[in-house]
Model the fold of this input.
Amino acid sequence: MKFISALAAALCVAFNVHAAPLPPAVKQALKQTGIPQSAVGIVVQQTGGHKPLISLNAKQAMNPASTMKLLTTYVGLDLLGPAYTWKTEAWLNGELEDGVLHGDLVLKGYGDPKFTIEQFWLWLAELRARGLREIRGNLVLDRSFFELPLHDPAAFDNDPVRAYNVGPDALLLNFNTLRLRYLPDGDKLNVITEPPLDGIRLDNRLTPGPAGGCDGWDDRVIVQPSGDSVVLQGGYPGECGEREHHLSVMPHPRYVEAVFRALWKELGGTLQGELREGVAGDNAKLFSTHHSDPLSTIIRDINKFSNNVMARQLFLTLGATEQASIARSVQAVQAWLQKQRLDFPELVLENGAGLSRAERISAQHLAQLLQRAAAHPLSAELRASLPILGVDGSVKKRLRESPSAGHAHLKTGTLEGVKTIAGYVRSNNGKEWIVVFFINHPNAKLGQAAQDALIQWIQQRR
Done:
């Protein structure tokens, strides 16, 4: 056993020996931030090349944060295809006569990652156009397609209202979030909320806060959901002008009900019954089906804006048959890797979004995945989903004034103690390079300068 371990270590060292050393600017940036080279994993390799230009701790299993979305979206493209869509169904559990439904309206979800408020309004308008006006039964939500453990939005970082902590749901609507826009008005502070939530009251107790800069302004706003009300407390610095954020303030079923009642009333419809969870009866009739945007569009939002709940919805879809579960999706990804003859023994999957303390992959294997993706017939779709350096998405403000802006498609990831980046960089000589740069260290948040230095070094190669 000791011989095998020693051999593996020797091979790892040999792998690094034949690669070029880290550029001095990268070494210096790491040194200045107190991040040892042992805490990073780096691979730089030309697209289509067989040997890395730079390799450091490439085989070490590391937390990739949101760069794990590259695996989820690439597998999704290959397994499902770019035209794949999700459906949401409306069933009538009763007779419809002269616009009156004598029974329940059942909404059944299949995991649409991006069922927005605008799409929901249009779909409800279609239900009205099809002749449904009055529902004398209940609104029944069928969320059974996802077989999931109870989700605790506070479990990850004890901040349950943050949008990134929204859990997946078969009937996910509008990311289960409320948009709050803050409008300073002298010594008052007005708050606009979207979408409309029937039966939910906003209790605005915010006061104009003292001047103190706008960094972390939203940390000064305390949002406390309480039953059918949302209480806003704390101070808001008026000098920051109009700002907004998206928060999750109630469970999925209550949110869907509140939005449905508000929009249905606006469309001239009525609902006499209550919210209930269940399934359509044996005698229920399919009334209408809504189809989502195609997967090629969905992955752009997942990767460009690092949308966690959308990534989780897609991940669950990968293994879905009659039902979807995390275990089925993990098995589906492992089966896909085996079919591709990719052996990633260190891979750990929890939700496919990277919002995890458990997920692991090595820099070498993520680079290998990007290498496969570059040669895939759908490579253009994956590249187009990645943020463009200095232009849009999560890297919009990164190196925007440098010559490297616009010359890289990169996915980023950030957690406490984790900072990662991976994707494609085009150099001055026209060659395209795969770059993976993982940092797992308490000072990781200070590591952007080192990552940026490597990106610029690659881009300036001639």
Remarks:
- The chain has a mean pLDDT of 94.
- Residues 44 and 435 are 5 Å apart (CA to CA).
- The two ends are 45 Å apart (CA to CA).
- DSSP finds eleven helices and 21 strands in the chain.
